[in-house]
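hey team, just a heads up i'm posting the complex here instead of the shared drive bc the drive is being weird again. everything in one block, sequence lines first with there labels, then the predicted structure for the whole assembly after. its two chains so it's a bit long, scroll down
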Amino acid sequence: MSDRAVMEMIAALVPAGARVLDLGCGTGELLAHLQAAKGCTGYGVELDDANVLACAQRGVNVIQLNLEEGLAIFEDQSFDVVLQLETLQNLRNTEAMLRETARVGRMGIVSFPNFAHWPNRLQVLAGRMPVTRVLPYQWYDTPNIRVGTYADFEVLARKCGLRVLDSFGVQNGRSVRLLPNLMASMAVFKFDRD
Amino acid sequence: MGSVGDVTPQRLLFDEALPLRSGARISDYELMVETYGRLNEDKSNAVLVCHALNASHHVAGTHAGVEKSEGWWDNLVGPGKPLDTDKFFVIGINNLGSCFGSTGPMHLNPETGRVYGADFPVVTVQDWVDAQARVLDRFGIRKLAAVLGGSLGGMQALDWSLRYPDRMGHCIAVATAPNLSAQNIAFNEVARRAIITDPEFHDGFFYEHGVLPRRGLRVARMIGHITYLSDDVMEEKFGRQMRSAELGYSTHDIEFQIESYLRYQGDKFSEYFDANTYLLITRALDYFDPAREHGGDLSRTFASANCKYLVVSFTTDWRFSPARSREIVKALLDNKRDVSYAEIDAPHGHDAFLLDDPRYHGVLRAYFERIATEFDPPLPSQPLTAQVAA
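-- predicted structure starts here --
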């Protein structure tokens, strides 16, 4: 979430005063912003030591946990909003995590790289795995063990019993609502449970 | 980063009787106390550091003229250190029943004129916390910036936050648990039996016989020490190293280096620690279980808390494993408390809380810096150079 514009865009989806759980919160930048700008409270969940330290330095509540081990520590519906920004694609148990997100939060917001963005399609057509700004890794060293598309997520959301409240693509810091599966490098979904 | 330098403990006398959880009372008791740094004008920068099993009020600095007398948390507490004495006024208190100067089993029982020995009342974590609260009253400190403790000290910090929630801003509980597991209690029981069955224990009145149950203390310490280290660290430090190349075919002599190390630790401990104190403290550990009064429901237990928390555990700590810390974190989350939790991937086992792992100290430093923004700086007489160096 280093891109300020994207951060503002996501923050705009979060109601003021919401109790927020940010899964894979990184350095806690978004949570700090939500606390300062929208009076939100809550916690970040992070595994990386350096990020945990950065959160502590920012004064953001952070819980050091491995998301692969699930969210058993959090009660059902105990958060207004659960954020999962650019983490889903790094997790082995994607579907389980998505279900957990919907269990713990009244609303979920996820973002992930959209593999169906047209430059990626071109690179695949040319016979190579795509390497772009949003997917900057070679196929053999990528932490993105789950590569999906905007359209794929709609299918998974349905399977998990989620109701998509809003969704759009993000490209160059702007939201893309026209053909997002083709035109955007990033996908954003806001959902709750059916 | 510097040391707080030479420090002198104070002895505080309390003549008002302290009611204990057991129903007993203790009057005319003394507590040994050390402080570091300066108390600011509105007395809002005080941090209480609670000690673990075999430590004391001597948290940081040195005792003048005594070699190797650094306090047990000297790597953490001092000018420019994570718990920065240029900003905070740090208090270490030796718990009641200890053998380091506070009233304990080695002292005279005013009611019998005899050394307390086994007659010293069983003390609990709550009793210690109540005694500590009186020390704060003596200093005129109404509200602590933080209470910090590791292991048994962490239990005291947790108890502070449950029973004196308005007297503290932050609770920092390191390498601790909401109660002991059956395995923990089992280790304590083996240690206690080693002491009690030592022929020189004399039912706890060994002082009168001019002897010490050193054998029992040695074994107790050896047992304890094994549980403080991780298997990996023990393997790395000692492995299967032998004292000599040839097998001695002896079951009495030291053959393996680990035996030598444990015997050394046991010998050292038995020279300075009191057997009755060891029994009392291990029992206080066994008894600690704040959820007991809430039907075992830890979430309900923490409903009374209202300070902010930092919980820290170490991945290789099998005595107080991260899972136990997560129980505390979960209870705090259930009550929507402000809590941060760091699970430090350190190799050292339970002992890690006393070592200066940079990730561990980094988190503590960041957290204390955050606390320091909540109160006014110490008195202007504070030397400015020290602050610049920090």
